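task queued by scheduler; priority normal; single chain, no ligands, no partner chains; default sampling; output format set to C-alpha cells
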Amino acid sequence: MVEQERLVIDLPYEPRSQFLSFHNRTKRFACLVVHRRGGKTVASINDLIKRNIECTKEAPRFAYIAPYHAQAKDVAWEYLKRYSAPIPGVSFNESELRVDYPNGGRIRLYGAENAERMRGLYFDGVVIDEPADINPRVWPEIVRPALADRQGSAVFIGTPKGHNAFYEIYDSAKSNSEWFSMTLKASESQLLSQSELDAAQAAMTEDQYAQEFECSFEAAIQGAYYAKELSQAEADGRIGNVPYDPKIGVTTAWDLGIDDATSIWFCQQVGREVRIVDHYESSGVGLDHYTKILSEKPYTYIEHILPHDAEVKELGTGHSRLQTLYNLGLKARVLKANKVEDGINAVRGLIPQCWFDKTKCAKGLEALRQYRTEWDDKNKTFRNKPLHDWTSHAADAFRYLSVGLRDNSKKKWQQPSTKWVV
C-alpha cells in the first residue's frame, strides 16, 4: 500500500507568544478579552484557517461574525485573504466575503445586523467579534443551534463595554470546564510600548483607558444614556425577582417594527412604584404572533401603549397597525409625537421608580444599558442623537412606556372588571 503524500502548507503567520495557549487549547469554546491592538483578530482568523484545513468532515463551514457586515470586511477580510493565499487551490469571492478551500471547506464573513441570513446554516466553527455590540439573541437563538449537529466550536473575542452579554459569557467561561478563557491587559501583554500607552492614557478619560486598554468591565459605557440610573437601580436592589401580582392590571408599551424587531415591555403600577415584570422581543413575524404571545401570558391587561406612527396606514393593506391590532382583539392607546430628547428625559425620570425582574427582563435591560449616543468619528465627539442598533427597539419601547405613564399620571389605575381578549 502506497502511503499518500502529505501536503505541508506554510502559512505566513507566526503566533505571538501571548496567544500560544489559545492556539493549543483543547476546549470547544473560548473567550478572549484582549486590549485594543492586541492581535485578537489576526489570531482568531488564523485559528479559523487552521481548523478549516484540519477538518475531516464533509464540506466544512466556518464563519467570522462581526456586529456589522461592513465592519467584518474592514476588520477581517484582508487578514483572511493574506493568510489563506499560500494554500494551493484556494479561491476568493469578494462580493460574498468568502474563501473556498481545496478540501471543500469555506470561511465566510457575516454581519450580525442581518443575523437571520445565518438561520438554518451549519457551522464547524465560528468567531464572534465584539459580542457586546451584537444583539444577545444572536448567539443562543441562531449561532449556537448551527453548531449542534457538527459539534462546532465557538470563539468570542472582544474588548469590554460594561456589564452586558459579553461580560456574562466571560464570567461564565472562567469557571466552566468546557471553556478556554484568556484576559490580556495592555499593562501586562508587553505588545505596546509604554510611551504609546502613556500617550493614549493622556488623551483618554479614565474610564475609556480602563475599558480599551486594561480590559475593565467596570468602566462606564461612553455615551450610555441610562448608565447612572441603572447602576443606582442595581445598587438599590431594584433589579432582581419581581413577581407578577394577579390583583394588579398590566400595562404594555410597544415599539412596532416592520422589517426589524418589535419590542414589548410589561409593567404593573402601584402608586409611584412601577414594577417591570416582563419583556418580549422578536422579529420577522406578523402582529398576530405578538397578540398570541400576550394571550399566552397569565396577565390581565388594562392598557397597551403604541407609538404615534401606529396610526399610519400601510400601502399594501390600506390599514394601520393600530387597526390590525384592533381586528386581532387588542385595544390600545396611541401616543402623540414626542421629541426623542423629551422621551429620554422621561425614561431618566421613570427608572428611579422602577423595579425590574432580572430574569424576564434580561435582554431588555441589556439593551437599556447599552443604548447610547452616536459617535462622530470625523469630529471625535458624540452626536446629539441615539445610535440606531439592536438596542434601539427595547429602548424606544421603554421610552414610549415612560411617556405614556407620565402623560397618564392622573388616571386612576384599577383592576378591570373583565380580562381583555388579546
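post-processing summary
- The chain has two domains: 17-212, 227-407.
- Residues 69-84 form the longest helix (16 residues).
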